[in-house]
Design a protein that fits this description.
By secondary structure, this protein is of the alpha+beta class. It is about 20% helix and about 20% strand. The chain is globular, with a radius of gyration of 21 Å.
Length: about 300
């Protein structure tokens, strides 16, 4: 008889009710990182990656997902070198909370992000900052809510700003959903590339409510190890890239974890910008009206 034959038998009722392995078992199973999956928007294309290797791509302009978890704060990432397409490297300095360098950062640039020289306009390319904002999400595909959990790292221009009805940046979109008393995990979110942007930029809008079974699955997905990794690990960590010493440069150039985070203009700060005087904006429906119409569909 196999030494594991006892485990092949039908589980007792009190064990069948368990949703997942406990932390003790996971710790003793060792440090295997498993298959870390993420979605990249490099080049304005949806790219599905496993441990840094592209396994599929989708060239549609939009993709429907369910956001099952999000990092509690917007993070920051700094690279001392120049970005080289297709080559993933670990950041020289990064911050999970946007306030101070992470304890694992190999080359902290300052004690606090607010006083960091890489957070000064002009420290990066042109008038931009060398240290960039980003937001980590854990998402699942609309047609596979109970399936793989993916990391999605958004550049600052996909996070901040006012946007317009049906084309909101992440923070404004979340506020619109929250103002209706609806958790963002309860809706299917349409992510769409903004074709007016010269660099990859996403906008967001609600597509539909989740059914009861889908919603329950989404809630469970948000508690998984995969979701935790997605919102806490950098892209380099997800891809299994070893940390390297900071490169010596006279003036750091913008280098980011993925090409989609390179921006030609500074958009890292959630600053409200005045409209040009010569451009009279067309009348728009109120945001509440848009969501009310969606609710009634």
């Amino acid at each position: 008889m196999s030494e594991l034959a006892i485990l092949d038998q039908k589980l007792p009722a009190h064990l069948r009710s368990l949703d997942a392995l406990d932390d003790t078992t996971k710790a003793l199973m060792g440090g295997s990182s498993g298959n870390n999956k993420r979605i990249s928007i490099e080049g304005g294309v949806w790219r599905m990656l496993v441990n840094g290797n592209e396994v599929a791509r989708n060239e549609e302009r939009s993709m429907n997902v369910v956001i099952v978890a999000a990092a509690p704060k917007v993070s920051r990432t700094f690279y001392a070198g120049v970005y080289k397409k297709g080559v993933a490297t670990a950041p020289d300095c990064w911050s999970a909370d946007g306030d101070k360098p992470d304890a694992t950062a190999k080359a902290p640039q300052a004690k606090m992000c607010s006083s960091c020289p890489q957070n000064v306009k002009g420290s990066g390319q042109g008038d931009s900052r060398a240290c960039r904002f980003s937001q980590r999400l854990a998402v699942v595909l609309e047609n596979d809510v109970g399936g793989d959990v993916y990391q999605l790292t958004l550049p600052s221009q996909s996070i901040f700003g006012e946007g317009e009805p049906g084309k909101w940046p992440l923070q404004t979109y979340a506020k619109m959903i929250g103002s209706k008393g609806v958790p963002i995990t309860a809706v299917v979110t349409e992510m769409r590339f903004d074709t007016d942007s010269s660099t990859p930029k996403l906008t967001f809008k609600p597509a539909r409510f989740l059914e009861t079974d889908e919603f329950n699955l989404a809630l469970e997905q948000g508690k998984t190890d995969a979701a935790t990794k997605a919102i806490t690990m950098t892209v380099a960590q997800m891809d299994g890239v070893d940390s390297k010493p900071a490169l010596e440069t006279s003036k750091p150039a913008v280098k980011v974890e993925e090409a989609e985070e390179v921006e030609e203009v500074e958009s890292a700060e959630p600053v409200k910008r005045a409209a040009k005087k010569e451009e009279a904006p067309a009348p728009k429906k109120s945001l509440n009206k848009i969501l009310e119409e969606w609710d009634d569909e």
